[in-house]
Design goal:
The protein is of the alpha/beta class. About 40% of the residues lie in helices and about 15% in strands. The protein folds into two domains: about 200 residues, Glycogen Phosphorylase B (Rossmann fold), CATH 3.40.50.2000; about 160 residues, Glycogen Phosphorylase B (Rossmann fold). The chain has 13 helices and 13 strands. Strands 3-2-1-4-5-6-7 form a seven-stranded parallel sheet, sandwiched between helices. The longest helix has 24 residues. The chain is globular.
């Protein structure tokens, strides 16, 4: 049995990384002692683009946690390190996703590795560099992650980005695990009235420019099959431009926009109602949207960017199209609906679930920890 400490977001904070931290903690606790340390607040209000960073789900993913850390309060960083020293874990796991956390992560990492019998420090990198990057992001990355003994990423492109900054680093790649637990066994309804006489396409998650919603709307004008598109998620940019685009493209009777963060229950209802999830992303590393969809048996149509094509098996669990190509995206939607690919894709998704298990990730974390232990032994014997 190993003694772990995880530091990261969890309920009541919302979003894919909070869900990830919670699920990882729950699965680690099935075999190991695991302390979860989370945040008294996640971001200053002025910095967060959404309406709230709190999860409104009725039955949210949650687990036992200690709330100690504030990103802009160095006293809380010291408090977190003291708690780590009291707990005396053999390994510490920290997520990395935005440069904002670099100062706190740099301090905690250095304090951890400065101990005489330092625990192994493993970073799980959800986004090595932001989608909308700046030069300072690479500086923040090196500052925050330099103390790591091992790194886990969820796409080959992110592994390349990380190795470019840390040559020789012990980096492992594994698929993002399943989000099947979201809204499980819920009887909630979709948050909008939808037509029931045509197949439903689903675009969900935070609405940001890199996710290519405008490309999907343009593609919809070229789709010959009778379909309806549900766009469900909080807009992190101006919704008005999409309203104008729907009007300009004369898509009013083919598109429903729901500008709100979906509870786990509402999201599960939307996925149960949909025929396919569509991700027309301009850029990506990996996507919790895909794992939420696959976890609920929902096929995916997506673009060949980042690690998305590493997860979606073209012609088996979904369809992959070139990036920023509305015509190809429209053709894929027509192919999926016209050839009734849903049933066979759903069967393949079910057969492939073990590939996205949390145990696979936990085994990889154990391997990284063992690698570092072997390196420490070799160093002490020289």
């Amino acid at each position: 049995m190993t003694r772990w400490c995880i530091i990261g977001p969890t309920y009541p904070f919302r979003g894919g990384i909070a869900h990830y931290t919670t699920l990882l903690t729950q699965h680690l606790r099935q075999a190991d002692d695991t302390l979860l340390i989370s945040f008294t607040r996640q971001y200053p209000r002025w910095l967060y683009p959404g309406r709230s960073d709190r999860d409104p789900s009725l039955n949210p993913l949650a687990t036992e946690v200690e709330y100690l850390l504030d990103p802009v309060n160095p006293l809380s960083w010291r408090r977190t390190v003291r708690r780590l020293n009291e707990w005396q874990p053999e390994g510490v796991i920290m997520p990395w996703w935005v440069p904002f956390w670099a100062p706190a992560w740099a301090y905690i990492g250095r304090q951890i590795k400065g101990q005489k019998s330092a625990p192994k420090l493993i970073f799980i990198c959800h986004n090595v560099l932001p989608h909308e990057g700046r030069i300072i992001d690479k500086i923040a990355l090196r500052l925050a992650l330099v103390s790591g003994d091992g790194y886990i990423v969820h796409s080959k492109s992110d592994a390349d980005n990380l190795k470019a900054q840390f040559p020789g680093a012990n980096v492992r790649v594994t698929p993002l695990p399943t989000y099947a637990a979201l809204g499980k066994d819920s009887t909630a309804n979709c948050p909008a009235s939808l037509p029931d006489d045509r197949p439903l396409l689903l675009f969900f998650g935070f609405i940001r420019p890199y996710k290519g919603l405008d490309i999907l709307l343009e593609a919809l004008t070229q789709v010959s099959q009778p379909v309806h598109l549900l766009v469900a998620g909080e807009f992190w940019e101006n919704q008005e431009k999409y309203d104008d685009l729907v009007l300009k493209l004369d898509l009013g009777d083919r598109v429903t926009l729901v500008n709100e963060y979906l509870t786990d229950e509402a999201l599960a209802a939307c996925m149960a109602r949909a025929e396919v999830a569509v991700l027309p992303y301009r850029s990506a590393t990996q996507s919790a949207v895909i794992q939420a969809a696959f976890g609920h048996g929902l096929p995916v149509i997506t673009t060949d960017v980042g690690g998305l094509a590493e997860v979606v098996e073209d012609g088996r669990t979904g369809l992959i199209v070139p990036v920023q190509d509305p015509g190809a995206l429209a053709a894929a939607i027509d192919q999926f609906i016209g050839q009734d690919l849903g049933p066979q894709f759903r069967e393949h998704i079910q057969q492939n679930q073990e590939h996205f298990s949390w145990q696979r990730l936990i085994d990889l974390i154990g391997e990284l920890s063992d690698d570092q232990e072997d390196n420490d032994t070799d160093s002490s014997s020289n």
